[in-house]
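Sample entry (543 residues):
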Amino acid sequence: MFDWLDKKPDHPMYSVEEAVKLLADLPKDKPDKALEEITGWLASVKDTPGFKPEARAGVIKFLDETAQPLERKEMAAYLAEPHLREAHGKHLWQTELEFWSRAAEAYAVCVSEIQALGKGAPVTLKDDLPVLAARAVRALACRMKLMMMRYEPVDETLGKSLHRLYSLSEAGGFVTERIHTYPAEAVHSTVQIEFLKALMLETAYTENMAPAEIELAFRTVSRYAVSCLFGTEPAAGCNFVVDLSRPAAPRHVTGGEATSATLRYFGAAPALPKLEEMAKQNEQGLLTAEQRLGEEFSPGQKVTVLKHLMVYWGPNPPQPPKVRVKISGELSVVHGYGTICKYVTHIEASAGEVTEDMDVKIKKKKGLEITEEEIEDPPETWMEEDASDWSVGAVVPQNAGKWVAVGSLCAIKPPAGSAWWAGVVRRLHSDAHNKISASIEVIARKPVALWLRVLGQGDTSVANWETTSGSFAYEYLHAIVLTDHAKAGERPVLVVEKNSFVPGHFYEMMMGDKSRFLRLVEFLEQGEDYDMGSFEWQQAPKG
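Predicted structure, serialized as tokens:
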């Protein structure tokens, strides 16, 4: 007569034990299919009535924990092909997005059910509440990260959910309770720290970062969020503020703002020295692997992202770009380091020289003569939309630009121009109709491609370097000198192929009758196939 006390929900996965049985046949060799299956289970367990709160929470936690290694494989696969017009990559992204969306919703239901029990909730459920809320916030942050990777706006629903979960956790008195968000994570976290991760990612200005860089930024945020500041009152180092009563993104603190019980102030000031230290360590070891933040990322990528975060989390982040002028016309575009070198002004060993003030003097015919046979990838034609002093916006045609990604090096020629400019794709926007617009930063209107001859490192002379190397055969490095690029710390700037820039190395610039010598100084950034850095002119080495 008391069978109703043991009544089970009308769902095959009514307990963790049953969930273990039902997931036993997951396709282990197809992580995308396995993740899709778990996502479906998350949605159905969330939506099915009749679950006891502890049973629903237990099953959802098990499903999520089972999915974690699959999600990591899926993310790695997506980052290998993140281009906006790559169909398989978009499928991987959609699979990731669906998983984190359903996980966030499922955990939010668990939190609401437990809090609805009030004081009558079992002690074990109360103890589990910080973990469930932290995982819900983490899932929302991961969903936010994925939206950023496709350069889509973070919707208001996500913001509302994020702020609501944090507010509930704060009201429940467990927002700063130390937990292990997942069993495999050695570092403690809290709901507040997980919330801070999402906020810091929102303030990182990811619009001009490639998907892999956004993932790297998220890992950096996850590592250093515990060092960030967070409070209910304005404080030194808290240069951002968020309003829990609104779904809007955080904004910079301007000073003189009216106080409110729903405002929370935060900032990364204590973490910035740690980011700077890691950036220096990676810059000093550009040719070696560095385990922190992931071995799959090069030291150059890490330096690029760390410097970016230091700028945008710092006290004086860059101002919004200047007003752009609407224009129209056909823009010729080529991409890829090797291809660009064929189009920009090219100086052979005896064809000209670059003076110390970066003026180019050509002794022979300007430019590189290109035959039809030499052009493997003819220029694409894009339509200009707008422009500013050193930036061009254009629509990428449907039948072109499959290569386009943030961080892609390219050369462009304006409609009425005769010379090729060097540029980098800085931002992308994709709308619901798959229209892709690109913003290209012009890094030089007068780029010069030439050869550098390796001399050595530090004070090593040419003769000594030849002796110690055991060979009289020189090594050479191709470079694009950005003759009219804004200088970095009063030093001129050049671009070389990816993973080729090593600070401290000396080179001889192969041009004209008078050799020029230079030393690479500061690594500035790494893109899809290039390194950018500053250099300084040197006296001829002894030898």
